[in-house]
Each structure stands twice: as C-alpha cells, then as structure tokens.
Amino acid sequence: MTTTEGTEALRTRVATRLADARARSVALTDAVDDDDLVRQHSRLMSPLVWDLAHIGNQEELWLVRDVGGREPVRCDIDNLYDAFQHPRADRPALPLLDPTEARHYVREVRDKVLDVLDRSPLEGRRLEADGFAFGMIVQHEQQHDETMLATHQLRSGPPVLTAEPPPPGLAPAAAEVFVPAGSFTMGTSLDPWALDNERPAHEVHVDAFHLDTTPVTNAAYAAFVDGGGYDDPRWWSDTGWAYRQKANLTAPRFWLRDGAGWLRDRFGVIEPIPPDEPVVHVCFHEALAYATWAGRRLPTEPEWEKAARYDPATGRSRRFPWGDEDPGPEHANLGQRHLSPAPVGAYPAGVSPSGVHQLIGDVWEWLDTGFTGYPGFEAFPYREYSEVFFGGDYKMLRGGSFGTDPAASRSTFRNWDHPIRRQIFAGFRCARDADPGERA
Ligand SMILES: [Fe+2]
Question: Residues annotated as region Disordered (predicted)?
Fold first, then answer.
C-alpha cells in the first residue's frame, strides 16, 4: 500500500478487500447449519450468528452512517451487537437476529456501503483519507473471521472445514540469531491503514539479545510436557502456577493423550501431532513456563518488532521481515489457506535480514510485555478500539496466525489478550539476554 496510489486504484482495492472479507465470513457461517450458528460452542466465544450480524453492525455504524451520512438501516439492534454492552457468555440469551435475518442484514448494509464507496472522495477528513474507515472495517471483519475460525476449532462434531496442507519445511541450521544493541523505529506514522495503537513511529533502544530462529515446535514443547514440566512449580510464575492448578493444565489445549504419545484435535480431525510445526493453543503462562524450563525467556514487544522490521543494511524499519511488499503465499502462512501452522522453515522467502523465520503468520507469538500506548498515542477513531484496554491484565501477541488475513497483518500490528487464553492460535518463541562480552 502506498499513499501515491491513485484514488480509483484505491477504490478498486477497497472493494476487493471488502469482497474477500465477506467471502470468508460467508464460508465460515455457511459451513454449518442454523442450529450450529445460534449455539454457543464455548462460553469464551459468541454464537457465530452474533459475529456475523456484529460485523454488519460495525460496518453500518462507520461506513453507512458516519462516512456515508445515510439513514440507519437497523438502529434498533445497535445495543445487541455492542461488544461492550454484552460479554460473550451472555450473548446467546439476547434476542439476536436469526441466521436468515442476519444474512439479509449484512447484505443490505454491504449494498449501501458499495454505493458509499463509489461516492467517497477517499480524501479530506481523517476518517476517509486513504480509505482509512474502509480499511478499519475490512480489518474488523477479518479479525472476527479469525475469531469465528477459533469458534470452529472449539465446536464439536464432524469436520466441516477443509484446506490444503501447509508446505513442507526444512529447519534452519541456526537455532538462534544475535541482534546487536541499538535503536530502531517502532510503530508507524505512515501506514495508512495502521490502527491507533500502532502509532506514532518512535525510536526505541533495544539491548543486544538472542532470538530463536523459529517458533517453538510441538516436538520441543512435548519434551517439556513429557519431562514433567506441568508438575514442577519451579518453572512457573506464581500466577501461572495458580492458573495451571485451577484449570488443571497438563498439555496444550486440543492435545489428546494416546498411550505414551499425543494426538491432537484440529477442527474435528484427530491426528498425530506434527513434530516440526510450531506449538499452538498455549497460554502466556505455559509459554513462560516452557521458556524458564529451557533456561531462556520470552521476548519483549520491542525485541520482537525490531527482529521483524529492522534492516541493519539501511537502518530502516520495514513493513515486514522480507521488505515492504504485501504478504504473498511465498512469504507467510496467513489467510486460512491452511488449517494449521506450517512446519518451521517452510517460508524461506519470508525470512528477516538477520535470519529469523516465520515472524509473520503460523502462530501469534506471546510476548512478555503488557498493553500500553506508544509515546504520543492518540485514540482514533474511538477510545474503545485500544485505549480502554491499556494497563489491563493483558499480554501482547504479534505476527498473526494461519487464520489471520494479510489485510490485518503487518509487523506493526498489535494484538493483546488475557494471559490465560488458549483458544486463540497462539504459540511463542524464546529469547535470551546477550552474554556480557556481546553487549556492545
Ligand atoms: Fe468487533
């Protein structure tokens, strides 16, 4: 994406991204019957039909009413689909639109939005400049699509989703890379569709550190599990151990004991666990316990972003580990093209200048940093997107997963969640401090 793109090219790209997001929402909701759509598969998640109408409602609020200045389509349902009014656990009890009504509603909104898009100058006031509001809504729909994919992982019953298996990988020779001390530009002031919490660009000094070349694999994590890692409080933080006891954690979520080994449940398919894929469905506490057991630690958010953006040859921060161009299938496992992470080393074209693999795609990576605004943060276009979460019980997640669309992926994109969450497509990689002689 560049700001020099012509207005008509931008309009076409917005329309394509809107259509891509809608095709995915439709596929995720058409995959199951109406009973399944209205059912709550987990108290952690909304019924799929809530997500669908909520996607339409946000689109109506921002694009039909605000950008378009049009009459409301259904202002009577705003409250039902306001995520701040109703926790997920309570949503099935609401008088929600039924699946037929929800499908009709999102189509009606979208028809109006395409008309608004045709007439918007895509410049002028900040909400419309560079198509920001449209980009925000595309990202919102894609983020809910990833949430709906996580709901699919939680639902019981026969498999309904299919996709090609990921490409094979060849584990890189080096287990870790060294990142020298120095400052880099974190965040962005230029990416037109970057959200408020990614802004503004600012300089951050990062001490020298070592970072794993790849995310921690299932095989590596199984050694922790099988070595008694879940039974030894030495490896866990106090909070993490208390949660491990309370929730009776014994392995990553969706791992199933099979004699001396393990199987996994992946979207309803019970299968052997591929040893060379990044581990997924672990919470922050499990990631931290593994890192401590391995004599390492989790990276911080500035460390992760420096590894994912900083180009030592030019001193510049790029949009992605591989450069500035948008992600293609050769760069990263994004966009639900596959229904699992890819083996480590599967994306040599996506490697960072310092040799770090798979920073983008495959699994969100837990980081040992809480959620705050960058220096100079300014809420836009509403406080509830980011600011109300600052300082809460959250840990940062970076890089996106196999379920994250490229439209909601870049090396500045910030995600956050409670440190106990395991239903999201999250894994991690480890880091360690530089040795004293390396801290130049
Ligand atoms: Fe939402």
Answer: 308-339
Distance 83 CA to ligand 1 centre (A): 7
Q: How far is the CA of 47 from the centre of ligand 1 (A)?
A: 13
Last residue of a domain, one of 98, 121, 154: 154
CATH number where 138 lies: 1.20.120
Q: Is 89 annotated as a binding residue?
A: yes
pLDDT computed for residue 440 by the predictor: 61
Q: Are 361 and 413 in contact (CB under 8 A)?
A: no
- Residue 126's contacts (CB-CB under 8 Å, 6 or more residues apart) are 132, 380, 381
338 and 318 belong to one structural domain: yes
- Per the structure, the complete domain to which residue 67 belongs is given by 4-154
The Cα–Cα gap between 77 and 68 comes to: 19
Q: What burial class does residue 21 get, using C-beta atoms within 10 Å of its C-beta: 0-12 exposed, 13-18 middle, 19+ buried?
A: buried
88 is in an annotated binding site: yes
The predicted-structure confidence for 141-151, as pLDDT tens digits, reads as follows 999 999 999 99
Q: How many domains does the chain have?
A: 2
pTM beyond 0.85: yes
State the distance from the centre of ligand 1 to the C-alpha of 214, rounded, in angstroms.
31
In the reported structure, the alpha carbon of residue 280 is separated from the centroid of ligand 1 by a whole-number distance in angstroms of 23
33 in a known ligand binding site: no
Digit-coded pLDDT (tens) for 81-132 = 999 999 988 888 999 999 999 999 999 999 999 999 999 999 999 999 999 9
